[in-house]
Amino acid sequence: MLKEETRLGLWRILLILGALSLVEAAVRVGWINPFFLASPLQAVAVLWSQVVGGNALFLTLVTLYEIGCALFISTVVGLLVGFILWRYRLIGASYEMLLAALFSSPIILAYPIFLVTFGRSSAAVIALSSIFGLIPIIMNTKSAFQQVNPILLQVGASMSLTRRQMFRHILLPAVAPTIFSGFRLGLTYILKSVLGLEYVVQVGGVGMWLSDAAFRFEVGEVYAGLVGTVLLSVLFLYMINRAELLVRR
Amino acid sequence: MKIHRLGIWALLALAASLLVVSSSWAAAAPRKIVLVVPHRVFFTVALPVYVAQEKGFYKEGGLEVDAVFTKGGGENVQAVVSGDAQIGLGTGFFAVLSAFEKGAPVKVAAGEITGMDAFWYVLGNSSIRRLEDLAGKKIAFSRAGSSSHMAVLAIVDQVKAKGLQPPEPVSLGGLPDTFTGVRTGQADVGWSVPPFMLDRVEKGELRVLVRGPEIEALNAITMRVHFVNADFAAKQPEAVRAFFRAHQKAVEFMMDRPQESAKIWIRKAELKFPESAVLKTWEFYRKPQLALKPIRGIQTNIDEAVKFKFLKEPLGKAQIDRLIDLSFLP
After folding, report:
1. What is the DSSP letter of A126?
2. pLDDT at residue B1 above 70?
3. How far is CA A149 from the centre of its chain?
4. SS3 of B39, please?
């Protein structure tokens, strides 16, 4: 009898493989025009050839670097600001609505300002993408601290825990789930922003590669880039999940 | 009985007349063409469409033309390949070559422009005044493999040929991004296409440094082409011929009557430039550049397409003959 987790994992893999097989068949049979959608096997083959003989590895490292920097900046600033907004209620109440409004605005349209300020380089991509990741982390951090059950703090006080022990063993595990949800949300927006900007502005890594491939009508490379993007996001999400487990231990 | 027979004859006569009328209606119904145009302002693609619409050239040819504006390049090609559009205007030759190599049903039906139509500018107070002053400077183009890139590489060669340090090509994207880049020092020389930036040239903010025709290496090369969906062209060749007759008429009209064409352009494209600046566009174009045929510099285009990875290998003569079909032109 298989464990529940293993069963779910197998179902997940089966569903994904099933969907990919359908697409593969549809392209081969001609239901889907191969000019507009590369078959999964073709995309993987092109990705492999680009990794081994092309620029894909270097471009991926550039994108990873941009995502990593943006995530780091968003995390550090986001946690700090989120904590301040919770700690000082007046500031929190004043800025919460503005943050929510900013979050739903198309900030991406401000990219020319970042290009002028930081130049047409990865710096502009990192700067703008950090803002995208920042807001969900701020909002989730504030929310996380607000939701901590005061009884937990009272229990800690009753056990005469030091402030450090209180923070490490009570506060941190209590706020971790919501804060890490903020990280996952922030990462999603950072990924979209980094790849989108690279595509539009043609700087950086994978996004620039996708833009170039689309311009050259190389459908296989476009979808190879997309597969690479999915793998990147899976990698980052896995790292965030591992970090959450570590913190909650 | 007589009345009954008369009734039957009357019915038959009515049916016959209805048949004749409906078939003549069908014959007279305009043929529909969806056209993809890479920009709603550019002189060589948008203006002929506006003129043809305004002056009724399409209607004269029995056509109902629906113009859809895209970002050009691969977007144009995909629209025509999918059959959503039947004709693509002013598309980079490389993009069409690339699609053809991959088996797309496309045919190059006409040339759009031979030679370069963009111009390169500097800020009004720049010390750069001649080609020689470009030595060691940064000169902008849109993106790798574009016609502006080819032009910049040709400019670099022209400067190198004078024994000077070659300028550095810098990819700055489209017209607004390029202008921003020049203003902020990311490049010393920007590029544009008329009528854009001509109002700033008029005010003295910018100065034209190099005009497209001055890039000698490109004067004998067709940079962009009009192409058709091959399946549509096979089924409705007369519609394609009618379209290019109308298009030719529109191009001749706009080159012969700049004042009237400028007014049409300003209204249809909602241009915000003064008419005097718009009229300066005509100084950048000569009629022979806009001739629909012949397609010039085919081998050079193919070699460059291989260099920029639009083609895996050069096309053979049989492939070129299959790709280029100028029989639809007047």
Report:
1. H
2. no
3. 29
4. coil
The whole-model pTM stands at 0.80
B135-178 tens-digit pLDDT:
999 999 998 888 899 999 999 999 999 999 999 999 888 898 89
For residues A28 and A87, state if they share a domain. Answer: no
CATH architecture of B119-218: 3-Layer(aba) Sandwich (3.40)
Contacts of B81 in chain A (CB under 8 A): 33, 35
Total CB pairs under 8 A between chain A and B: 55
Query: Could you tell me the residue range of the domain that residue A137 belongs to?
Result: 38-248
Number of residues in chain A? 249
d(CA A101, CA A31): 43
Which residues belong to CATH 3.40.190.10 in chain B?
A: 30-115+221-323, 119-218
Quick one: A9 and A89 in the same domain? no
CATH of domain B30-115+221-323: 3.40.190.10
Q: Choosing among A55, A200, A215, which should be mutated to test the B contact, i.e. which has the most B CBs within 10 A?
A: A215
ipTM: 0.71
Q: How far is CA A224 from the centre of its chain?
A: 19
H/E run at residue B263: helix B258-268
Inter-chain touch A119–B186, beta carbons under 8 Å: yes
Cα distance between residue B135 and residue B163, in whole Å: 10
Interfacial residues of A (vs B; Cβ cutoff 8 Å): 33, 35-36, 112, 115-116, 119-120, 201-202, 211-212, 214-218
- What is the per-residue pLDDT across B65-113, written as a single tens digit (0 to 9) for each? 999 998 777 788 989 998 899 999 999 899 999 999 988 999 999 999 9
pLDDT digits (tens, 9 = 90+) for A47-69: 888 888 888 889 988 999 999 99
